[in-house]
Design brief:
Mean pLDDT: 96
Order of helices and strands: HHEHHEHEHEEHEEHEHHHEEHEEEH
Radius of gyration: 21 Å
Strand order of the largest sheet: 2-8-7-6-5-3-4
Number of strands: 13
Distance between the termini: 51 Å
Structural class: alpha/beta
Bound molecules: pyridoxal-5'-phosphate
Helix content: 25-40%
Oligomer: single chain
Strand content: 5-15%
Amino acid sequence: MINENFQKLPGAYLFAEIAQKVKAFKAENPEMEVISLGIGDVTQPLAPAVVEALHKAADEMAVAATFRGYGPERGYDFLREAIVANDFRARGIDIEADEVFVSDGAKSDTGNFQELLGADVCIAVTDPVYPVYVDSNVMGGRAGELGEDGRWSNVEYLPCTAENSFVPEFPTKHVDVIYLCYPNNPTGTTLTKEQLKRWVDYALEHDALIFYDAAYEAYIQSEDVPHSIYEIPGAKACAVEFHSYSKTAGFTGIRCGYTVVPKALRVNLNPLWNRRQSTKFNGTSYLSQRAAEAIYTLEGKKQIRATIDYYMENARRMREALVGMGFTVYGGTDAPYLWVRVLEGTTSWGFFDKMLHEAQVVCTPGVGFGPAGEGYVRLTAFGQHEATAKALERIKKLG
Ligand code: PLP
């Protein structure tokens, strides 16, 4: 007998499905070069300060006196203190080191955190949405049944569309947990401080928790867009925040991130998350944590900023070119994602196929992120400038 919740999950994980289609196309057309503007993986090498820290940490491991075995459950003090000082105190936010839990990334933490919730908790997600929030709640038996419209019966969906400028409206019924992700994957849109404040006030007033995914915080360019939900008064009582070094510093292969679980939360989740992590999580390697620490040095900061600027220059060029071709484009100004309206008369997957077959460019079908994503594709700015320019030339020639 296996857990029936897993059997409820439809098909493959979105990116596995895309990879399969691309593999089949390449097998049929081995001579064609395919450019991916699809999966959100980074392409630029690690910052030199990070590489140096990795070498140093490896050398320490080679000597008995400096060798490290199992690390502290919540992560090493040196990293948690660097996080607190740079990501929070420097922004006037009072977070303490024992509210920070270092992990191997935000996918694990956003996926696992639902284990702390009761079985009959009602969650709300934006639509479209990063699939991990919903799928992990399906695994947890909290989502109900999947309807023909692609929606789970116990999940409250908050559509984000061009009509509401991608700003979700409040749930129409009581929900216990609201997942928010800003800058948003997949739409690349953001909430201003004022807009996020309305959500914090809503959560406080309606006895809800916000799970806030700040994985793309480092890409924010606009002044009035908050980098952390804790910039909003009252958020420490109602919000857990997830961070990732994947896109901030190219750590998709190194693996490191962290989650903030404030002690002031109205439900005391900090000791529970500690208990969960100490039982089930093996910790992040010493090397990864030293590598993460290095991005907070003066040199490290400069270097990761240069890489983010490189990607954002890509985003700017993509926006300009696509708008020039007549596409309607959202995002791409405070995020490495562009949310592009597909050509009239086609669907997300239809446009995906067209792009793959006629331009050999991989995009991500918007509907893969939820029903409200139908009619859009997501393009990422994580490519090399040259490859991205080539992809844009090919898109221009689409019939
Ligand atoms: N959260 C969002 C919104 C993401 O888009 C991603 C990665 O694509 C993650 C979390 C995963 O981050 P990590 O690589 O740290 O697991």
